[in-house]
Design a protein that fits this description.
two-stranded antiparallel ribbon; single chain; 11 helices; 2 domains; mainly alpha; two-stranded antiparallel sheet
């Protein structure tokens, strides 16, 4: 990747991590930074950020996802969107996280192997958040569509039918379980659930020294990643680490 693109992505990420994210608004944490939202929401800058996620200037493939990754993630989003009415952006982001957590608890391996960051309303997959927040979706536009509604809320609907080719029988069962267990809860209830005292979000935030700042609205986003090892015993952690190594090795061969 061109060095200028790398630098641009770092700069944009630093700006993003200083923003105050809410379900209904995006504002800077202080008046001295009041220029950030208007800059970030400028159409060309949004597109430029998406370009930094790609392998090359043609934007043919996202930088951190393979074609198979996009198909599996996209169909996971479709699965939820087909089965849950009035699916908001925040609720979908939480369901994706709970899918990952549930799979790691049960199988000691990830479902989608995404990076979940510790945000005020996290855990959040940053790239999903921005794809759903943008008026011009890019990464998953062939799978789901984002619809801004009143008061700034965004709702998600499928644009294609669910295709189970990317999933094992166990994965399909876990998808069903997540919908049955969590699909009826509101976005607010899911945020509270993922922020419980013994959740990976709380444990990781406490270990990294940002929990008080998040709870007291002094920090709204970070680039800290959720550590799922707190869900597992020693054998489970070993199995999880081995599976991550396998996924990394497999990706390097593609």
């Amino acid at each position: 990747m061109d060095a200028s693109i790398v630098i641009l992505r770092v700069i944009l990420h630093r700006l993003i991590c200083n923003l105050n994210f809410h379900e209904n608004e995006l504002t800077a944490p202080s008046t001295r930074r009041g220029f950030i939202p208007s800059l970030f929401y400028h159409k060309k800058l949004r597109i430029l950020y998406l370009q930094t996620l790609t392998h090359n200037s043609t934007m043919s493939q996202p930088h951190i996802y393979t074609k198979d990754d996009i198909a599996k993630i996209g169909n996971t989003l479709v699965f939820f969107a087909e089965r849950i009415n009035d699916l908001s952006k925040t609720k979908l982001l939480k369901l994706v996280y709970l899918l990952e957590e549930t799979t790691i608890r049960k199988c000691s391996r990830p479902f989608l192997n995404l990076d979940f960051e510790i945000w005020k309303l996290g855990p959040v997959v940053k790239d999903l958040f921005f794809d759903f927040s943008s008026t011009e979706q890019y990464i998953f536009k062939d799978y789901v569509s984002a619809h801004p509604e009143e008061e700034g809320r965004v709702y998600i609907s499928p644009v294609t039918h669910f295709d189970d080719d990317e999933f094992s029988d166990i994965e399909l069962s876990i998808l069903d379980d997540v919908v049955k267990q969590f699909g009826h809860l509101s976005a607010k209830e899911l945020v509270e659930l993922t922020h419980s005292a013994h959740s990976p979000w709380t444990i990781t935030a406490k270990q990294q020294g940002v929990l008080d700042d998040l709870l007291n609205n002094r920090v709204y986003t970070t680039d800290l990643k959720i550590d799922f090892n707190s869900l597992l015993d020693e054998d489970g952690r070993d199995a999880y680490a081995q599976h991550l190594e396998y996924l990394q090795a497999s990706r390097s061969l593609k």
